[in-house]
Each structure stands twice: as structure tokens, then as C-alpha cells.
Design brief:
Layout: E1 4-6, E2 9-11, H1 14-17, E3 24-27, H2 29-33, H3 40-50, H4 57-71, H5 82-97, H6 102-131, E4 135-140, H7 146-153, E5 161-164, H8 165-168, H9 175-185, E6 192-196, H10 199-208, E7 212-216, E8 234-236, H11 242-246
Parallel strand pairs: 3-4, 3-6, 4-5, 6-7, 7-8
Antiparallel strand pairs: 1-2
Length: about 250
């Protein structure tokens, strides 16, 4: 939680005081707006275990990034909607692992789609409320289709700027991709806050150029050194907490 109630007094964590003067909120997509703090790789760790698929985490990670690289080179990747994208990802994972388990492949696909769609539904009202007060943007390392996914999710009407790494030739954690978003939103770094689940790709680079930061840190987040706090203005465990912070 971001607020503590003690003896009837609402105590606001010091980091929240740093969020005054904001004009824009910029989000990450993968692991943030789609899975509320669970990186795609961690989601697959969970699903492989749930489906009793016997493969260790290093192997899952290796195949995951191989498939990621494959999708980045697909000629039609920029047209992929959610289900074709996820089916391609999961189908290729199963092939590379040598699994011949079509029913479990189907179950993994359906479970992943369900998790994402539930978060899409939850976050549309959140973005709508935030849009009444702020300019909104999105910066994502993706396959060139994040704008299509935002439209499919119902996010697009509320986003003033959507930046996909595949389209602009820049990738997080390069500070230039954050600067591009700020430029398109016509705001200064201190007037914007970045909300993301990745410390190294989202929070640290955003803070390095003077943006405010809200780290979506959950039980699935990898541990970090003690100095991470100097880069984080506010820590949350779910996006729904943004209402009490920003509205």
C-alpha cells in the first residue's frame, strides 16, 4: 500500500510529495499494463509449473528470448493482434523445447490470454480517469504492434503518445526513447512520471533524465541492491494504487 493509517491520521510516504506539478503519466506496456507487474518471462515460469511441464527456468529463459528474437524479425509482426502474437510465441516455445503436447499448449495459450484480457479490462477505467487530469503516454520495447494491442485493449483513446521501439529504432533503457516521449507530449522531465515494472529498463533510465518514477514492484520482481531506492519516488504493488497517488 502507498498510504499508512495510524491513529486516524493518514501518513503520506515522502516519495509521493515529489509527484507535485505533474502534467503527464507515461506507462510501460509489457509486464505493466498487460500483466500488472508480472514480466512475460515470469508469467511463463508460472504457467510451465502450473501445467506440469518439466523444464527448468534457465531453459525456459533461453527459449523465451530466442522466440522474442524470432518475433522481432517476422515480416508481418506489426499487424499482429493479441491472440496471433501469443499463439506464435507459445507454439514456437513448445517446438524449441521439443514438447508434443497440443492440449497443454492450448491451455497455456488460453491462460495467458485470459490474464492479459483481465488486466486490459481493469486498466481501461484507470486510464480514462487519469486522462481527465494528465497527458498520457506509453513507451514499450515491442514488436512494432503495440499500437494495435493498445487499440484492441481499449487503451488507445486515452493515450496521447504511443512509442514502440521497433518503429522508432530506440530501445529502453536508452534515455533517448524517454526523451522522445517527453518531446511528443511537450512536457519537461520533471513534469512527467514513468510507471513500469522493470527497474533497469524503466525506472533507472527515466530517473536518470529527471523524470519522476513509480515502480510496479511485486512478489515476482527480482531482488535489487539497496541503492534502488534513490531511483524510485513511489513503489506500488498493483496499478490500481495509482488512483490514490495521482487522482
Amino acid at each position: 500500500m502507498v498510504k499508512l493509517i495510524m491513529s486516524g491520521v493518514c501518513i503520506i510516504p515522502s516519495g509521493m510529495k515529489n509527484l507535485k506539478g505533474l502534467k503527464a503519466v507515461i506507462f510501460d506496456f509489457g509486464g505493466t499494463l498487460d500483466l500488472d507487474g508480472i514480466h512475460w518471462l515470469n508469467a511463463f515460469y508460472i504457467l510451465y509449473e502450473e501445467l506440469s511441464l518439466l523444464v527448468n527456468k534457465p531453459a525456459i529463459k533461453k527459449v523465451f528470448y530466442e522466440v522474442d528474437g524470432h518475433l522481432e524479425k517476422l515480416p508481418d509482426r506489426q499487424k499482429l493482434t493479441l491472440e496471433p502474437m501469443l499463439w506464435t510465441h507459445i507454439n514456437l516455445q513448445f517446438k524449441l523445447h521439443g514438447f508434443n503436447a497440443p492440449q497443454k499448449e492450448k491451455e497455456m495459450f488460453e491462460k495467458f490470454c485470459s490474464m492479459v484480457r483481465q488486466n486490459f479490462e481493469r486498466n481501461v477505467p484507470l486510464l480514462k480517469e487519469l486522462k481527465s487530469k494528465y497527458k498520457l503516454g506509453l513507451v514499450s520495447n515491442f514488436y512494432g504492434n503495440v499500437a494495435i494491442l493498445c487499440n484492441e485493449a481499449g487503451f488507445a483513446p486515452f493515450l496521447d503518445v504511443i512509442i514502440d521501439s521497433d518503429e522508432v529504432g530506440l530501445r529502453k533503457p536508452d534515455p533517448e526513447i524517454f526523451k522522445l516521449a517527453l518531446s511528443r507530449l511537450n512536457v519537461q522531465p520533471a513534469e512527467a512520471v514513468f510507471v513500469g515494472d522493470s527497474f533497469n529498463r524503466d525506472i533507472k533510465p527515466a530517473k536518470s533524465i529527471g523524470m519522476k518514477t513509480i515502480w510496479l514492484k511485486t512478489e515476482h520482481t527480482a531482488p535489487f541492491l539497496d541503492n534502488w531506492k534513490e531511483f524510485v519516488d513511489v513503489e506500488i504493488s498493483t496499478l490500481s494504487e495509482l488512483k490514490e497517488i495521482l487522482l
